[in-house]
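Worked example 3 (structure in, sequence out).
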């Protein structure tokens, strides 16, 4: 095969592979396309505006640079000339040098100006558009789950419920290592750091369930540290909020199962059958509540202290739920 044909065939293969890669990215997952998820909040809308500006500028630069490279490769190819033959030496293109120095400065200045315009609204509210008062939720990052504590004492694990079209403020902290709270459709990422409380504000523009993932590598079960935000109509949220408070206070809620499924099942399985962690069924420790509390608060050889700092409500709910494993086989 002539060398020219081989080169053209190689170029076509590269272009085809690049097309497949871009098609995979464009069609992957939910939602389809290159856009971030959502946006479903005013804050996420501003983040997406910055995203598309950067995509447009970097995409244009990529096309310009790679296009010029291809043109130069084709236009000034060897054409049978000796490899030792030097081309003309050009010196003193001061105007050109000034232009290619000034253009990046202008581009960076435009990006910085746009970001500074958008930035204040990413972590603030337009309270006039909110449908009700602000809700504040404490978000605890733990190995390897999210714990949510509401002002009325309600506790949720991995799933946060909020009223749609209401301002929500998150007080984000960690009980062990660094984590990162991230629900792409609603807000940007914010680190959960031990000993420090960070604050994040957003407002879901519609009802629905929005999925997220811990954005900071926090240990061996990091991929399973998922989180969801469920935005409900205000009346539905208020009904759940009040009834869940009564149920958790009386011990009739599903807090124990929710805690086991979100905290323990990641390693031990939803039926306690084992997996990454040992089989729990028939373990005599389930007849020793104090021993379970010590293990949850202090951890074990490979088990992190998943229950450090839990209040009595959550601890007692889990103890009541895991009794079912004491006689299982």
């Amino acid at each position: 095969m002539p060398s020219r044909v081989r080169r053209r065939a190689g170029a076509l293969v590269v272009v085809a592979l690049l097309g497949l890669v871009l098609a995979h990215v464009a069609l992957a997952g939910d939602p389809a396309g290159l856009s971030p998820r959502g946006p479903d909040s005013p804050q996420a809308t501003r983040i997406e505006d910055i995203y598309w500006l950067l995509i447009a500028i970097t995409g244009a630069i990529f096309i310009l640079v790679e296009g010029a490279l291809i043109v130069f490769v084709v236009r000034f190819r060897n054409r049978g000339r000796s490899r030792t033959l030097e081309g003309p030496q050009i010196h003193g293109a001061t105007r050109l040098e000034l232009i290619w120095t000034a253009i990046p400065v202008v581009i960076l200045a435009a990006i910085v100006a746009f970001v500074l315009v958008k930035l204040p609204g990413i972590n603030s509210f337009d309270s006039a558009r909110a449908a009700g008062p602000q809700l504040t939720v404490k978000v605890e990052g733990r190995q390897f789950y999210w714990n949510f504590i509401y002002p009325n004492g309600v506790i949720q694990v991995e799933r946060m419920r909020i009223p749609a079209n209401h301002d929500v403020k998150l007080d984000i902290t960690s009980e062990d290592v660094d984590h990162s709270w991230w629900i792409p459709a609603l807000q940007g990422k914010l680190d959960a750091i031990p000993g420090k409380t960070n604050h994040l504000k957003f407002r879901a523009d519609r009802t629905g369930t929005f999925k997220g993932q811990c954005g900071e590598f926090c240990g061996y079960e990091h991929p399973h540290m998922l989180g969801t935000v469920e935005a409900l109509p205000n009346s539905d949220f208020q009904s759940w909020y009040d009834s869940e408070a009564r149920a958790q206070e009386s011990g009739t809620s599903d807090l124990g199962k929710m805690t086991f499924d979100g905290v323990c099942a990641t390693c031990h399985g939803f039926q306690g059958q084992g997996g990454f962690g040992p089989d729990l069924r028939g373990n005599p420790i389930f007849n020793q509540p104090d021993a379970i509390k010590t293990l949850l608060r202090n951890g074990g050889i490979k088990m992190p202290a998943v229950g450090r700092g839990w209040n009595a409500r959550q601890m007692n709910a889990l103890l009541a739920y895991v009794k079912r494993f004491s006689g299982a086989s």
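Notes: The mean pLDDT is 87. Residues 25-75+95-122 form one domain.
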